[in-house]
Structures are given as structure tokens and as C-alpha cells.
Specification:
The protein is of the alpha+beta class and 160 residues long. It has one domain: 2-Layer Sandwich (Beta-Lactamase), CATH 3.30.450. Strands 1, 2, 3, 4, 5, 6 and 7 form a 7-stranded antiparallel β-sheet that branches. The longest helix is centred in the N-terminal third of the chain and has 39 residues.
Length: 160
């Protein structure tokens, strides 16, 4: 059975809508990480921890679903606006997602390179569900700190 012209047009429209959403979300993560790194360099680590920890602050957006977190190269979470309990552990080296992936190690590897994207599964803030997440990691230049921000893949072609 051949697809109708209208089904092909609907599919093309869905692709055209999804691609800018993905690009914008990726760009937002990169921009926010670079802003946070600049803030850390200008204001210092103590001020940055306070600002990044603020769940209503400038580094949380998209209705609280997207946010910046701050870690050091020993994989100690220094600030996390959504899951502050992560700051209690001395290191998250051995922590894994629900699929058994040690994704914090991926964060470290990206930070060692200066920047990079990682993928894993993580709880969506405000929802009782785990979804694939793409996170941008950015090393704060000339420090042992890095920041990250990501977006969720809610279903094929739907990013949040």
C-alpha cells in the first residue's frame, strides 16, 4: 500500500518542526553551560554553587525540566537545583542510571576533553518517568570544575 500524499506531508511537517526544537534545545544547553562557566570564573565557586542550586534561578528553565548542574573532576556534585541530595556523596563515580550505565564517567571523559555530549536515562523533573537524556558537559577553563545541562527525548521527534 502506497502512502498518501497527505501522510507524507504530515511526516515532513513533523520532521521540520522537530529539528528546530532539537537544535534550539541543544543550543540552550550549550549557551547556559557557557554562561554558568563565565559566572564561575567571574564570581567564584561559592557564589556559583548558591546560584546554580537555586531551583528558581537563572540556570533553570523550560518549566524546571532543563537546568545546569556543577561538578568537580572527582565527580563530586557541587550544585544541583533539582536533586540536591546528589551533593551528599563524595563521588558519583560508581552511580548508574536505571539501565546500569555509569554515565557520570561519561561526564568526566567529556570534561577531560573540554566539552562533549553524553546520553543516558534519567528521571524527568515533575514526572514519575525516566526518559533518555542528552547532556552537554562543559569544563570551566583553567579549573577542576565542569557544568552540564541536558534535554529529554520524550518520544521519537519530541524533545523537552
Amino acid at each position: 500500500m502506497k502512502p498518501s500524499i497527505s501522510s507524507v506531508l504530515v511526516l515532513l511537517l513533523a520532521i521540520l518542526i522537530a529539528v528546530p526544537t532539537l537544535a534550539g534545545t541543544r543550543d540552550d544547553c550549550i549557551t547556559k553551560c557557557k554562561e554558568a562557566a563565565t559566572f564561575i570564573q567571574a564570581q567564584g565557586i561559592d557564589a556559583a554553587i548558591k546560584v546554580i542550586d537555586d531551583k528558581n534561578g537563572r540556570f533553570v528553565w523550560n518549566d524546571g525540566v532543563s537546568y545546569v548542574f556543577l561538578m568537580n573532576m572527582k565527580l563530586k556534585m557541587l550544585a544541583h537545583p533539582i536533586k540536591p541530595e546528589l551533593t551528599k556523596a563524595e563521588t558519583l563515580m560508581d552511580a548508574k542510571d536505571i539501565n546500569g550505565k555509569a554515565f557520570f564517567v561519561d561526564f568526566l571523559n567529556a570534561a577531560r576533553k573540554g566539552k562533549g555530549w553524553t546520553q543516558y536515562t534519567w528521571p524527568v523533573p515533575g514526572m514519575d518517568v525516566n526518559k533518555p537524556k542528552h547532556t552537554f558537559i562543559y569544563r570551566v577553563p583553567d579549573t577542576d570544575y565542569f557544568v552540564g545541562a541536558g534535554f529529554y527525548v520524550m518520544e521519537p521527534g519530541v524533545f523537552y
